[in-house]
Design goal:
single chain, TIM Barrel, eight-stranded parallel barrel, 13 helices, binds flavin mononucleotide
Length: about 325
């Protein structure tokens, strides 16, 4: 896998195939699925296969599957299953999720407290996933009393990981507060494998600054891309020393949001077709939920966003939702 200069971070319940297709079209070099339970995959949970679905719009673009777990044998078996699907570029290990239900189970950020186990997990995954590369997404440590960026990076490299993404916050801070670039730089300096710097990138200037301050091979963007896929276009332009196109105005944002909803609908229809017994929502209801959850971000801060949100209360169906967008953000003449 080529080292991405600019990657979309995994975001649970957000970075499905529709979101990834939008990010790729805007300029992301690589993306990761939402986190997938290794146990769920191995035991055939019906919730898992839908998370591994792709859309034709992402064709040929590198997507990694992120697994969470803590049992080397189970992670290895899950990695083997992912490799066998033949449609993913890498298997990634989640060694940073701080959510209680994950950590209490020994998964995610809990792996940072047991570097030896982390190493055994990565090693087992590397053997099982071959020839697919294994990558790790981690943080700078569990809490400020236990900075561990360099040690974790060394453990992952020694175990055979091909790339690391380091979120520059401690697990104890969840997703809030400043990003500690010097700690990410410690991970970069500790290993020869490429490191992606992650955290707090909401503009091209912030991406360039984080790359400069950390010496990382690439940047990984999470929440900054919510409802703002043009951030990838802006960062790629900045990386190439080009001037970026101006950010889209309200009518253009409505077009982008509707395009996202169309991809979302295509995905949910595909899921319904392929997994009729998975107990998923009706495709249109699922799209309305996606809109409430994250597509609404396209309108964040615009006059008219509050009115759209109010109308959303009564927009139960997809046609209602599209009509509400057209009322709040009328299409440009001739569009
Ligand atoms: C809603 C949400 C869901 C997330 N889901 C995942 C996940 O599934 N796997 C993971 O490694 N990190 C996950 N993260 C962490 C992000 O990938 C990223 O590291 C974090 O948001 C910091 O980057 P940012 O400041 O650019 O958003 C999630 C974060 C948020 C806010």
């Amino acid at each position: 896998m080529e080292t991405p200069r600019l990657a979309l971070a995994p975001l649970a319940e957000v970075t499905d195939a529709a979101f990834r297709a939008v990010a790729f079209a805007a300029g992301a070099d690589a993306a990761t699925t939402e986190m997938v339970s290794a146990a769920g995959l191995v035991r055939g949970s019906r919730n898992t296969p839908p998370l591994l679905e792709r859309l034709p719009e992402e064709e040929g673009r590198p997507v990694s599957v992120q697994l969470y777990g803590h049992d080397p044998a189970e992670l290895a078996e899950a990695s083997r299953l992912v490799a066998g699907l033949g449609r993913f570029a890498a298997v990634d290990l989640n060694a940073g999720c701080p959510m209680r239900r994950i950590v209490e189970n020994g998964d995610g950020a809990a792996l940072m407290r047991d570097p030896a186990l982390l190493g055994r997990c990565v090693e087992a995954m590397v053997r099982a996933a071959a020839p697919l590369p294994v990558t790790v997404k981690t943080r700078i440590g569990a809490d400020p009393d236990h900075p561990a960026a360099a040690e974790l990076a060394r453990v992952c490299e020694a175990a055979g990981a091909s790339l690391l993404a380091v979120h520059g916050r401690y697990a104890s801070r969840v997703h809030a507060g400043p990003v500690d670039a010097p700690r990410i730089a410690e991970a970069v300096a500790a290993v020869r494998i490429p490191v992606l710097a992650n955290g707090g990138i909401h503009s091209a200037a912030q991406a360039l600054a984080l790359l400069r301050e950390t010496g990382a091979a690439g940047a990984m963007v999470g929440r900054g891309a919510l409802g703002a896929p043009w951030l990838f276009t802006e960062i790629q332009a900045a990386l190439a020393g080009r001037r970026a196109p101006p950010p889209p105005g309200p009518a253009e944002r409505a077009v982008l949001a509707k395009r996202h909803l169309a991809l979302s609908l295509a995905l949910h229809r595909r899921l319904r077709e392929r997994f009729p017994d998975a107990g998923g929502l009706d495709p249109e209801a699922a799209v309305v939920l996606d809109f409430r959850r994250h597509v609404f971000h396209y309108f964040h801060g615009l006059p008219g966003a509050a009115a759209l949100r109010r109308r959303m209360g009564s927009a139960a169906s997809l046609p209602d939702l599209l009509a509400a967008i057209d009322v709040a953000f009328p299409p440009a003449p001739g569009a």
